[in-house]
Amino acid sequence: MEEVDKIIIDSLRHLSCDVERGITSLKDFDADLVVMAITSCLQAINPQLKLPRKLPSSMSARIKFASSLAQQITEFGFKGDMGYQTILYCNEVEVRRVLMFLLERLPKEANAAASAEPIGYVPKVVKQIEDTLRHSLTKMWIPSEALHFGARPIEHGFLVNSFGNSVPLHGINLIVADETTDPETASFIPNVIEQCSTPRQLLPSLLFPPIDYSGMQNWQQSAVSEPLARDLSRELLNSAAIEKLDSPSAAGDRKEYINRNSPQHKAEPLLNTLKEEKESLDEMQKAVKECEENLLKLKSQREQEQTILKELVAKVKVKNKTMAVLSNEENIVKLENLIKKGENRLVELANQWDEVQAPLLEEQKALKSSETRYTELQTLKKAYKEVMTDLKEKTALEQKLILKCKDLNNKNNRAAYTKRILEIVGNIQKQNKEIQKIISDTRQVQKDISNLTGQVDRSFTLSDEMIFHDCKSDESARKAYKYLAALREECNGILQAVSNIGQAERELRNLEEQIETEKNKDIRDKLDKVQRDLTEMKNEIEVLMR
Amino acid sequence: MEIEEKHKKALQILNTNDSISKYNLEQLVETCCKSLANQEPSQKCKAKFTSHGNTFALIQLQTSLLYILTQFVRHSETPEDLLSYLTTDCSIEQEKAKLLENYYGLWYDRMRLQFINIGTHLPHVTDVRWEVGHLVKSNSLDQPDGPLFKLSLKIEKYDAVLEELKHEFIEFTCTSQELQDLVYKLKDIVRHCQKLASGLSSN
């Protein structure tokens, strides 16, 4: 049974049912776990079913929920005894039977999908990322103007196009009246929605209210306990003096005094002339500036023209000299000779260049050939490097794959399961052989019995005939015949008694088996539990009645 | 998920106070759901709310409902979970709990959408506009040049001052080579995503 339990628990884990690592057999299943297992199986069979995965705390609700589960299981065609008691007061054998029935009913595809379901936090997150990526790539593009709040619903969540509508997380401290609040004060507190200045402020305020420092009483205490360093009396006196000065009566006196003694009315004409003078000065300064700018421009123009003139004079000088040289015929002849000499020199130099060039060219050719070898070597080196890197990558990949293979072996105990199944099949075959042997033995025994009964019958009939034949002539034979009849009856009676004993033994064995099965059901415990639940329910009803 | 005890207690008004009729409760739950889904509650609803006798009790109930709904949406709980929480943990009457469950199921997606739309994000590119230009002759060179692509990326971002969605354009020009480079890089991103989508867990 351990093997069966292991297989059941393993399949339940694949159905995202949280069975703890320590639980290895169905003996350790409590009512909550049984409910979770059954609901996950039912949901896998019919995905449209939506059931809570835990038992409610109230006893009446528990019984109601358990009986609804039991009804659903019977609707799926479970033929055994099924009721709320099977789920709440779980018996190992019954739970095993129910779970095996449900696991057999699981759809094959769902089972495959469930087995492919990743286990653990990180693989689940990776799967989610994959799904959202796939959705975002496969779903049709829709302009964000056509979307409500920049997102559209997909199978499990939303596909976001734009976060343009996102409000920054700025919440406010919501004032909530409770039992401790004074009722008069509470009547002035507006409801939570009205406390927010904008409707979109409500959610952040409900989720993450900003930190409130008003409750930090230790700060207040420290402020009170801190000694005052300043002379307060002097400060108060100073502030009183300033207040006096700033008082409206004092300010009025001061204004009158200033008006009386100010030379403002005397200086007004002087100020006007000063203004006029200033304006004329500004104008003159502007004119001077303009003149200076013009001067600078003219200077730069003059410098440019002078440089152009110098260049022109130099050119004219060169031209004059050449004209003077060219006017003399001797000079022309000299120049021609010079040109000829130059040509000859050029030819000589070309010849010399050829002489020098020939060995150099050969040398270059040789070098080129060596260069090609060098490049070949370089390419070989490169190829070697590439091959080496490739080798490294492939060895790394090999190691990875080996690790993966090991992991796979660890994860999927397929080989182990097949081994176990084969072992079980072998055991069954052995047992089958033994059963066959026993059957053949019993048949042999039956044959012997029938032979013996036949023999007995035959011997009786033979002796009957023989004694009956002598009966007419012999008195003792008559007696013997009577005895024989009595013996026959007795023998038949003994045989009947033996067969009756056998039958009774068989019945006894059956009854013993029945007793054992009834004992396994723990009816006494169950009855106790039911009694307890009944009292609890009565209490609940009383509470409700009140 | 932890819900404060005071909110559970506040829900007890539903069991004790007979003045909260089914109609009133419907109005109240609808107001809560609409507020969480950023929709203006109807005036009729508001009037009903203010005219009610026990306003203080209603305000408490509304606040607690808002907190509970927020927590349930935040943790992606199903309507069945809410029903079992209300009936078992808060021991609310089955009929009223069912009503709350129905409203939660109806408004769940819209409320969730508002949760998605909380946070500070960089602007999102939502559209692209483009023009192709050809330079016939410039001031400095008597030579044609081009094509020159003028692109403007339309972005959406939240304006914190106006408190609304704002559209802006990022404008730039590029040559055909640069445009090709950009396109290849964008395609590279898409290819990478496709590769990831095809088998991230298997790698």
Automatic annotation (TrEMBL), chain A:
Record domain CCDC22 coiled-coil: where: 264-521
Tagged with keyword Mitochondrion: no
Domain CCDC22 N-terminal: 1-107
Keyword Coiled coil on entry: yes
Coiled coil: 274-394, 494-540
Record's keyword terms, sorted: Coiled coil
MF terms (GO), sorted A to Z: cullin family protein binding
Biological process terms in GO annotation: positive regulation of ubiquitin-dependent protein catabolic process
Family matches, as InterPro entries: CCDC22, CCDC22_CC, CCDC22_N
PANTHER family: COILED-COIL DOMAIN-CONTAINING PROTEIN 22, JM1 PROTEIN
Family: Belongs to the CCDC22 family.
Protein name per Swiss-Prot or TrEMBL: Coiled-coil domain-containing protein 22 homolog
Species lineage: Eukaryota, Metazoa, Ecdysozoa, Arthropoda, Hexapoda
Gene responsible for this protein: 109543693
UniProtKB/TrEMBL annotation, chain B:
Domain of life: Eukaryota
Domain spans labelled COMM: 124-197
Coiled-coil ranges from the UniProt annotation: none
PROSITE patterns: COMM (PS51269)
Pfam families the UniProt entry points to: COMM_domain, COMM_HN
Biological process per Gene Ontology, one example term: sodium ion transport
Family assignment from sequence similarity: Belongs to the COMM domain-containing protein 3 family.
Name assigned to this protein: COMM domain-containing protein 3
Lineage of source species: Eukaryota, Metazoa, Ecdysozoa, Arthropoda, Hexapoda
Gene that encodes it: 109541254
